[in-house]
What we know:
Blueprint: H1 7-17, H2 24-34, E1 39-42, H3 49-59, E2 63-67, H4 71-82, E3 88-91, H5 97-108, E4 114-117, H6 125-132, E5 136-141, H7 159-166, E6 173-178, H8 183-193, E7 199-202, E8 210-216, H9 220-230, E9 235-239, H10 243-255, E10 260-263, H11 269-280, E11 286-289, E12 302-307, H12 314-321, E13 331-337, H13 339-352, H14 356-373, H15 379-386, E14 406-410, H16 412-424, H17 431-438, H18 444-449, H19 465-477, E15 481-483, E16 491-493, H20 495-501, E17 508-512, H21 533-554, H22 558-561, H23 564-573, H24 578-582, H25 589-605
Parallel strand pairs: 1-6, 1-7, 2-4, 2-5, 3-4, 5-6, 8-13, 9-11, 9-12, 10-11, 12-13
Antiparallel strand pairs: 14-17, 15-16
Helix pairs in contact: 1-3, 2-3, 13-14, 16-17, 16-20, 17-19, 21-23
The site of adenosine-5'-diphosphate (ADP) has 17 residues, from α3.
Amino acid sequence: MNEMISKQALRMLETYFGYTSFRPAQEAPVASLLRDEDVIGIMPTGAGKSICFQIPALCKSGLTIVFSPLISLMKDQVDGLVVQNIPAALINSTLTQAEFNKTMYEVRSGKIKLLYIAPERLGSNFFCNVLRALPIAQVIVDEAHCISEWGHDFRPSYRLIGEWLRSLPKRPVIGAFTATATKSVENDIKQLLGLQEANVYVTGFDRPNLSFSVIRTPKRMDYVVHYVRQHMSENGIIYCSTRKDVERVYDNLTRAGIKTGYYHGGLSDEVRHKMQNAYADDTLQVMVATNAFGMGIDKSNVRYVLHYQMPRNMESYYQEAGRAGRDGAPAECILLYSGQDVQVHKYLIEQSIESPIRQEIEMRKLQAMIDYCFCSSCLRKYMLSYFGESTVWTSCDNCSSCKGDNERVNVTREAKAVFRAIMGTEERYGATMIVAIVRGERTERITRAGHDALPVFGALSDVDEKSLKGLIQQFVASGYLHSSGGKYPVLSLTAGAEEVLAGRKEVEEIRQHVSVPSRRSKVSTRTGTAGTRNAAGGLFEHLRQHRKKLSKEENLRPYLIFPDTVLIDLANLRPTTLGEFANVKGVGEAKLKKYGLSFLQAISEYKGDL
Length: 610
Ligand code: ADP
């Protein structure tokens, strides 16, 4: 352990949260806040940010105020703390005057240790004065990137926090936490919250429990329906680029008998709220959504995120895929790629962005996303290096490249023929015509134009039409060809193609062997994460149902009772006494007392797979 963590902090961690040690990335921020030194913590989703400030809050005398951007997030966090016997409360616009008064009374009498506040409340002078009179030991700004216009979730009300901090009679220690790590966001956080002297801790971006795959298939709908059916007891998100696709995927899954929800910007607040709630409490198995389904999702047991289309850049992809497996248990992130996605994105960038410089930047980001889809080496390594992190290992053992699903095939012969056909027809045609020429089809259009006289005519008569079209898509994606986009895209050669024609470069295709799309990946041995859900068998499902029943009775999100990781361990360990139950990671004293006997009974009643 690099940092000295007090015994008291470790005791609190075990008593309240049921964990015997801090994660390495949590130690420094916890120690720093305990020493009353400001902290900026940049940690990826699922790294365990909350504990970094919740434990110091429990150790300090006085109140911790936590600013949090969304009412739903705030409620989840507070519910999760209260069920662990941690005195927490929230103040936001949903409270009645009586509830507000009661909460403030409890805060003033020192009963509450953590008070979650929506920053909008700082707009009221009266409220600011009330807060100023409290013994504030620590102020935490959660999702701190919301303060910056450079971030993706700018909230003007976050700007009130800095001013309010400056007005306090005694400056408390301040911690700002976020998963967004760009320098401009970090600088804004420093400047606007007065954190120039803060200790900045940046945790690696790797999420070892997530497996990453790219599947290149034209039959995406079949894949999705098949995949979801193979994972009936799991929750997942399917991201689509357009509202129309959301509705199509939703229809198909619903027809296949799957409890599916949908979510996009065109729905009323009421419907969105309903969908989000039903998904959070496990009533819905799958949510099909556009990227509008975002920050409010604190659900820890999302077991897979499928992308029905390739997103526009790696930043969006990592953020959306990262909603899987927040609980640290194995989860899958699968991107379904089709060459059409490239055309659509290029078209949208050209149409929606005026500035040529911005266009150029977006195109470069898009190219990096395409390269990810065609990356034949470790996908995780590629992704981390994109975000500026170097890795010492070469294989993660937990992505579609490392699991050996790909085969490299030399396609230089095919590439040269296609490039020559494009050159011979003066870059005037799209893929259909070029394929017909290289396959030697004597259509009326071809003979009339005299293309059957080209030396390359019929040079690839041994290759079928579909494979050739797929290859052309890959040549575009890999930057050998340029496609004009729009309704009738025309192909032209790039400098890369000229290198190939000059014999200076070979072209490889990555061929995938996708048969049954349900392969549940093993968790990388590099990570040491607990066993997979599959290993836990039917007892896990039985415990999940039991948790669901309790969740309904108590009106509490299922994952706040116990996350999936605890259920997996329970199913594997099958404790028979409260003592054995207490050894399960993530079971603190309060939850043991509250739910221990009920889960022990559920385990003893289970008669399956013994
Ligand atoms: P973040 O806010 O960074 O996305 P959370 O605070 O929600 O992450 O934590 C993610 C998961 O990790 C939660 O299920 C949490 O209980 C678990 N966790 C946090 N700290 C520890 C720890 N020291 N040991 C084991 N699990 C932990």
